[in-house]
Amino acid sequence: MNAPFDGSDGRDDEPSETAATRADGAGHARDDQGELTDPGGPDGPIGPDSPHEPSDHDDHDEHEHRSRWPLVTGVGAGGLYGGVAIYLLGAAAGVVPPRLGIGLAVVGTVVLLAGVAGWVDEAFLAPARERAGQTKSRESYVSTTVLFLVTDVSTFGALFVYYFFIRVGAWPPETLPPLLTSLVLVNTLILIASSVTIHYAHEALHDDNRRRFLGLLGATLALGVIFLGGQALEYYEFIIHEGFTLGSGVFGSGFFALTGLHGLHVALGVGGIAVVFWRGLQGHYGPERDTSVATVSLYWHFVDLVWVFLVIVLYVGGTL
Amino acid sequence: MSRALVQVSLFAFVAVGCLLTLLAARRLRADPSPDGGYGVITEREFTVGEAKAAIVHWTTTTNHREIGLLYIAFGTVAAVWGGIDAMMLRTHLLTPAADIWTEQTYNELFTMHGLTMLIFFVAPVFFGLGNYFLPLLLGADDMAFPRLNAVGFWLLPPALLLSRLGIIAEVTGKSLALVVPESWLSFLFALREPAIGWTMYAPLSSTSPDPQINFLLLGLHLSGIATTIAAINFITTVVYERDEAIGWANLDIFSWTMLVTSAIALFAFPLLGTALLMLLLDRNFGTTFFATEGGGPILWQHLFWFWGHPEVYIIFLPATGLMSLILPKFVGRKLFGFKFIVYSTIAIGVLSFGVWAHHMFTTGIDPRIRASFMATSIAIAVPSAIKVFNWITTMWNGNVKLAAPTILCVGSIGLFIVGGVTGIFLAVIPVDIIYHGTYYVVGHFHLIVMGIIPLMMFAASYYWYPLLTGRLYDRRLALFQSSLLVAGSALTFMTLMALGFLELPRRYATYPADFQWLQVVATVGSYIIGLSVLLWFYNMIWSYFHGERVETADPWDLKSTNQFTPEWQWFERKLERERGIPPSEPEEVRRSYVPAQEGKPPSLYGRIEPVARTVANDAGTGAVGGLVGTLLMSAVLAVAVVIGVFDLESFAGLAVLVGLPASVTLGYGVFLAGGMLTWPLLFLALGEYLPGELSFVTGLWFSTVIASGFAIAFHTDQIGLELVGYLVFVLLAHWIYGLGLAGTVEYLGGRHRTPSEGRR
């Protein structure tokens, strides 16, 4: 259906115009900064997500950046979701081997991750390698991260609502496993400590203290990994020794869904911190160049906060 | 008749029809045009290399305009798909029994019709329009995150495929079965389209064995991620990518609505995503989220509608943005009450999260909760009404032009008013309890989701067609198409409302035979909608090759009313660059609104006083004119009394009518008062709409109209020739009244001014 449009519109990407041929431009102000910087030239300011865009606001038609990674990401996500669905089909109806679904999901995940990695590399790492400054304000990235965290509140919200639903019902609905163990206490302390270390790592970056920055960031990464290990240990204890699983009742559903979702977030955060740590080793950051440190650290604090809430509501609140 | 084959054939029919139109249009264009139209265009055949380059181009693009077109194309495909579902639903309902397709098929159709339209049609098309036009309107280079933007789009095709795999698998299986043994294809036949209702209520959705439901849930989850990504991108774009010259005060209305829509989506969609996965776990891993012993089916309804009602506003707000953007262009007036439309948009955004439980009035939730949701649900009508009043006021005294977008805008306002007002009734608990399970609800929400949302998309497609293609569409066909669309929508969904009033339950594949003729009427209406959509396709494709080429960047004459907005300015620069068309200047420019008084704003008294003075003047002029007219009329009536065709006693009847004793004198007093007050005021209010330029002519028309009422009211027992005389004198008396009234008003220079500037 897009065929009728593509003829005349596809062609206007050629950067053929000059600033002199512009129309009267009645409307929003258009300055002629375009003449100062050669669009897309080697010295042009290159933004993290728009490598060719100069500061000129006028020329909508100079988008030469193309990317194959969005399509790869889409295909990968489709593979992952389709794979899960085929696995469920196989497990339920037995018309396909479930392994086929698992295989497709794994391939999909790999493609998905490759797509995301390609995108991150193209949009953020390549400009950083070229040591170009960024045109997009740091503030916009931080705000976007906040927007993402808002969506995350909502993502967690549905599960918390479920938990509150059953908590105000007949309680306890089943025999609960020992929730408040030393493991949870230690894990909580570890996660809070990691929030502190990432904060001071960021501070160290502002003070241009690279060694301290890297050291504290490395510590955060290690603490995150340890937390995940502790989480795995807790699951092991519950599932193998206590026989308490996702399907073992009203509380089990909520417990594993909430902690699992949170664990997934921690794992993503660990991945993010690993990338930031690696980029730190490459020397991508400085006191004025800390956008991704700021965004990842914001995310990490959020994950930490959710955990504290989770411990209070689910572990302590469940035991009471 | 296999449902899947019918559906795929219909889909193929639309697709092949579009393709044939496209090919025919291309081929015909190659012929030298006899009227010397566009003979210079040389026809090239597509080579394989070019096709490959085009595929690479469109799959790797990160340009906001191209992604916008991809979104629109995707949404259009989904719309055709969901539309065919709808046509089949209506066809099924032609007969009271389920004898065209089975009950199961009917359930599948209405499940997937709803989901396809809401999730895969509306939001993608609006996000496409937003992608294309938001950066142009904002003076931004592109969306804030161009690649993320593309990611958001490319998640949608797999999401749609997963969601509708049931039908794809069935048709693939049936086709393959012709060549390979059917036993190899069992996995294809294991999937059926879900038949659980688009709301996917537990426990039906959590216990139905159909494995396609898992695919559906995962597909919807993926599409939710895509929507969330797009929403984040829109917000960051509006907040951070604006041109320096554009602040919050002069941000255009479409960007405002997209911003609020995105903000709602930001909170609504992730919650749906989690709820969908919870349902998936319930279905496959024995969790108890929506099982009776756990959260219960009511929890699903809470979570679903916590997304579902905001979703209504997610898809409704961009339509209001388009209305607020397009309507002023075709009536030559600035949007009335811009600020209040923005406030109402924000108010809807906030309130939309506080009304969800009105979908659950019949589920037995706590009456106190119901009462508070009733209050918020009624309250949310206020901001919507603010919009409607502002749109109507925008048109008032405007220079309304007959064009397809105008018809669509005006039609939408009408349909939306009916859809909206019936919604207020449904928000009232006792009414809802009666009508919740009936077609009334179906009629109500379709008058909104059909009555304004797609209509505004069509309006946008016409309005921006010259900008998108550099050509004009076939305007006569467009007028016909849009009228047909409005008429078809009204016919279909008003009929559903009538069925609802008769309390026909919805959601059933069968119905009592008494309702058949109304169902047939609704089906005919839906076919009219379908026909108009086909005409739209034809117009869009054919005009792309054969439409009149635009020779100016201002095909809608926007410059002359100072409404030449940034996207058209962009188009003007593009035309100049590519085709050397210089910017045009209109012959005359006037402001698109009556400017407020310069200097400090008047006080409340200062604002009321001129209005009060005008009213007093009008009333005074009218009273004097009425007195003159009534006295002249009395003279004519006196002659009639003398001749004997008019009975003076009939005045006594008038006195009785208003509760006075039966006296001729009192009756005449009432008659005189009416002649001085009621009828002059009506004349002043309606005079502008009566035929004739001169006030004498309008006066005659007016008095002729009111004479009919008088003739009936004052008739006593005249028959035969007496009756003829009576009627002649009544008419004469009224004409002289009209002439006296209008002449006096004209003489005193009252409200009846010269034709307003809008009429020129």
TrEMBL record, chain A:
Bias kind Basic and acidic residues: ranges: 50-66
Signal peptide limits: none
Heme-copper oxidase subunit III family profile domain residues: 67-319
Presence of keyword Transmembrane: yes
One Pfam family per UniProt: COX3
Record keyword Cell membrane present: yes
Protein name, per record: Cytochrome c oxidase subunit 3
Native organism: Natronorubrum texcoconense
TrEMBL record, chain B:
Record Gene3D superfamilies: Cytochrome c oxidase-like, subunit I domain
PROSITE patterns: COX1, COX1_CUB, PROKAR_LIPOPROTEIN
Pfam families: COX1, DUF6789
Predominant location: membrane
GO-annotated biological processes: aerobic respiration; electron transport coupled proton transport; respiratory electron transport chain
All copies of domain Cytochrome oxidase subunit I profile, residue ranges: 52-556
TM stretches of this protein: 68-89, 110-133, 153-172, 213-235, 256-281, 312-328, 340-359, 371-390, 402-429, 441-465, 477-502, 517-538, 623-646, 666-687, 694-714, 726-750
Signal peptide: none
Protein's name according to its UniProt entry: Cytochrome c oxidase subunit 1
Organism this protein belongs to: Natronorubrum texcoconense
